[in-house]
Structure formats: structure tokens, C-alpha cells
Amino acid sequence: MTLTELKYIVAVARERHFGRAADACYVSQPTLSVAIRKLEEELGITLFERGGNEVSVTPIGERVIAQAQRVLEETANLREIARQGHDPLAGPLRVGVIYTIGPYLLPRLVPAQIELTPQMPLILQENFTARLLELLRQGEIDCAIMALPFPDAGLEVRPLYDEPFVVAVPRSHPWAGRPSISTAELKQETMLLLGTGHCFRDQVLEVCPELARFSASSDGIQRSFEGSSLETIRHMVAAGIGITVLPVSSLPTSGAPDDLLAYIPFSHPVPDRRVVMAWRKSFPRREAMDALVRAIRRCQLPGVTYLEHQAPVISLPA
């Protein structure tokens, strides 16, 4: 029995699919399947019922996987304790950030963190919410900066800030001079959306549910297009292909020229997202989490509403 095999069974239990679990673990599906079969033979039990496209966990498998998750967390904690000794602010902190936050927060966060806690370098990576949660559970990262809601439990969550959305249109668009836009008006336009897997895409579809119908239908190409990043979509809007919805932190900073686009606030109620930081309840370096929160607040992202300095930590039930 190895830690790698435990990571594999936790991934399969989460994904309910061997192929997706293999992708999440960055291994081939045969490698993952052989390792899990070997573990089942060693334990003398069946962990998963394999049938069709869906994989289900056996009752005894549920107990084994729950214990495997605890073992992975405690292993990560042992490494952390050994590395940090008695100073929780000494040594690197591994931070994951979703794609629609990273480009706008990280350039401000890194210098702020260096100024506050130079002895705690940040090891950063961007990814989708689902992948960051997987890395968090496996102990591969220490915390993740994401937007609510996300499908997980057993985490500590610290609210950071609320971020309103705005509409981006070409300068030549009839809406360019408008003081505000209602969410209902979006369905009249060709919308540019992030691709599947981005939580910001889901948040935009909540703003205008009609877009989900368009993007799912055969005629959807006429009404919605998908991009790989907010910056790709911004350039497509500038080219006159359509309009989009952006988080306010992604807008050009004050004084930066943007002759091709106009940014229009939403009329009330203004759609927004809550950005939070999450970490495992068992993570031992609580002071490091507090230090990172202080650095994030020092970033002063334009347009966002920072929450109270002592915003309560939320414990998601296991």
C-alpha cells in the first residue's frame, strides 16, 4: 500500500470515473486502474463497482476511502510540521488560484506578501476550481483562492471580498454610452463566455439563464461563443464579435488607456461573486493563513468590497 495508491482511490471516489480521475492525477488510465486493482487485491476487498460510464463506491470502499483521505491529510501535515519547525511563517506556502482571479490578484499579491512576510515565499499555480480542490485534499497545495459556491466539504473557508460584475462592449456598440445595463437585456446580444470548467462561466449563466439554453442548443453558435480566458474574450469583444461580462478586478487600472472597449455597470441588483480562501481543517499553519489574508487585503483591488478584517472562518461540514 502506497500514498500514491491512496491518492488514486480518493480521486476515483470523487470523479466517479477512472478516466477523469487519471487526468486529475496526471497519469494514464491503465496506470491508475492497475494500481487500484493491486490495492484491492492486497486488502482483499472491492473498493469500486465498475459498470457502464459510472463508477460507484462499495460500502466498505466508502470507509477505506474516508480513512485514505485522512492519511493523505495527515501525511501532508507531517511534512509541513517537519519543514516549518516552530515558525509557521517560515518556509514556502503553496497557493492555488482560479484562472479568473490569478491574473489580476497575483501581480499585486506577490509584492504585498514579500513586504509583509519575506520569509514565507509563495508557490503559486492557477487551475480550475475542481482541480484545486483535488490538490487541496491530496495535500499538494496548502490553500486555494476561489469563488463561492464550490462543491466540497471539510474545509475552513475565509471570506475575502465581494466583486461586482460589469458588461464589456465595443466602443462602437449602441450601449457604450449607457450609465447601466439590466441583466435581462443581455439575452438580446451575442455573448462571449468562458468554456466549460470555469466557475465564472457558471456565474454568468446565473446572471442570464437564457444563455444556457442558447449554448446548449444547436443554434447556440449564433448567440454565444466560448473562450479559453478572460483576456481572449476581451480581445474578441474589441474585434466586434460580441459582448461579455467581466469581474470588476479584470478592468484596466485607473489611467490605463482602453480605446476599444466600454465597461458598463449593471443596474440593481448588481450580480457579483464572493471570493474566499479555503484550506484543510487539519492544516497546522493557521498563522500563515492569517498572514496571506493580510497580504490580500493590502492588494486593494479596484472595485471590490473587502470584508471585515475579522471576517469569520466558515467550517464546511464534512
Write the layout of secondary structure elements.
Layout: H1 3-15, H2 18-25, H3 29-43, E1 48-51, E2 54-57, H4 59-84, E3 93-98, H5 102-116, E4 122-127, H6 129-137, E5 143-147, E6 155-170, E7 191-194, H7 199-207, H8 210-216, E8 224-227, H9 230-238, E9 244-247, E10 261-265, E11 272-280, H10 286-298, E12 305-306, E13 314-315
Parallel strand pairs: 3-4, 3-5, 7-8
Antiparallel strand pairs: 1-2, 5-11, 6-9, 6-10, 6-11, 6-12, 6-13
Helix pairs in contact: 1-2, 1-4, 2-3, 5-10
Brief summary:
By secondary structure, the chain is an alpha+beta fold. It has helices spanning 3-15, 18-25, 29-43, 59-84, 102-116, 129-137, 199-207, 210-216, 230-238, 286-298; strands at 48-51, 54-57, 93-98, 122-127, 143-147, 155-170, 191-194, 224-227, 244-247, 261-265, 272-280, 305-306, 314-315.
Name some characteristics of this structure.
single chain, 318 residues, alpha+beta, nine-stranded mixed sheet, two-stranded antiparallel ribbon, 10 helices, 13 strands, 39% helix, 22% strand, globular
Low-pLDDT stretches are 216-223
Q: What structural class do you assign from the helix and strand content?
A: alpha+beta
What does the main sheet amount to? 9 strands, mixed
Q: State the share of residues found in helices, binned by percent.
A: 25-40%
Total of helices? 10
Shape: globular
Order of helices and strands: HHHEEHEHEHEEEHHEHEEEHEE
